[in-house]
Amino acid sequence: MFRTASISRRSFLTALGLGTAAALLAGCSSLASSSASSEDSASSAAPAEPFLTPEEFPGVDGSTACIPLMAQIMADTTGADLTEAQSAISVSTTAYAWENMGVYDSDLAQLLIVYEAPDYVKDEIAQAGTQLEQKAIGRDALVFIVNEDNPVQSLTQDQLREIYAGHITNWKDVGGDDTPIVAFQRGEDSGSQTLFQNLLIGDGELMEAPTELAPASMGGLVDSIASYNNSANAIGFSVYYYIDQMYSQPGLRLLAVEDVTPSNDTIASQEYPLCNDFYAVIRASAAADSPERQVYDWLSTEDGVRCIEKAGYVPAV
To answer: Cα–Cα distance between 275 and 140 in angstroms, integer?
Structure first.
């Protein structure tokens, strides 16, 4: 019934390292979710009116944390069963999705649902001369994860920068136990690493993480923090939606930043300090009646915004 919406310079299963996308979507977060009220209100609204067939739905690629939204978009715009839509979605992850469309001009990807591109990919796209059209459709946040036994409840942005510069190396220096800080990062092709660089580090100093402290996948980072030496001295980061809705491990919790705990409400209000948009992207040359242009435009309508809310995300409105 479905054309699998899969683009892979690097396959989804290799990049994610967690099995199938369906298993990922089925994973339950052990962290408390604050999105129930928005989901309830969204689900009580009239269902969206489909305007494409499943076969017409554009090839879609993007970020791991956007997989549930891609599936909801497919279900709402085509009338497909959500479970079947979920099984039809796989991604090549943030950097490779941007490259597939903007550098290699792959004809498999007509629509991206994606976080911001790394700077090196932006340079590649500029050199390729590809004209893309993008708009913010949702808002997420960079969040920091620690062991639940870590007594530190909140860090300032300056403290986080000092930790990742290698200047603060012991938890006792930020109100915790006398134990070394083990700070995990991601690779430069990771969407969460791009957010980390742009939202927190900027032009500041950043220590180089050894391979064992820079897992290839988002799930790998979560697993590593949960299992590191069976102790409470590790810290790492991800995007809020992924941790809250898609994948977590028992024994972990989110840190507050500047005494603000990340939640759908504090992200929507931007009270939480490390918020960032994610995007829908198409080629600027996409025809007005093309499926990708129709979906792109629809995401700004009331039905499109409800779709974003229904999938548990914060719309960028």
So the answer is: 6
Helix (H) / strand (E) element for 137: namely strand 132-147
Q: How far apart are CA 86 and CA 63, in angstroms?
A: 14
Render pLDDT for 28-70 as a digit per residue (tens, 0 to 9): 333 434 444 444 444 456 677 999 999 999 999 999 999 999 9
Q: Scanning the structure block, which residue is given the tokens 């799930």? A: 219
**Percent of the chain residues past pLDDT 90, beyond the cut:** 65
Helices (H), 107-258: 119-128, 157-165, 191-195, 218-227, 240-241
pTM beyond cutoff 0.90 = no
The DSSP result for 95-131, as a single string, is HHHHHHHHTS--TT-SEEEEPPPPHHHHHHHHHHT--
Closest C-alpha to 259, from 155, 147, 108, 109: 155
pLDDT tens-digit map of 104-140: 988 889 999 999 999 999 999 999 999 999 999 999 9
Q: Which two tokens stand for residue 193?
A: 């690493």
Band (pLDDT 50/70/90 cuts) for residue 214 is: confident
What is the spatial distance between Cα 316 and Cα 237, in angstroms, rounded to a whole number? Answer: 22
> For 123-137, b where at least 16 C-beta lie within 10 A, e where not — what string?
ebbeeeebebebeeb
CA atoms within 13 A on the CB side of 202: 9
How many C-beta atoms surround the C-beta of residue 176 within 10 A?
18
Cα separation, 163 vs 140, in Å, equals 23
What distance in Å separates the CA atoms of residue 112 and residue 67, rounded to the nearest whole number?
A: 11
Pick from 31, 52, 24: nearest CA to 253: 31
Phi, psi of 281 (to 5 degrees): -135, 135
Please give the domain boundaries of the chain with CATH numbers for all domains.
12-139+278-315 (3.40.190.10), 140-268 (3.40.190.10)
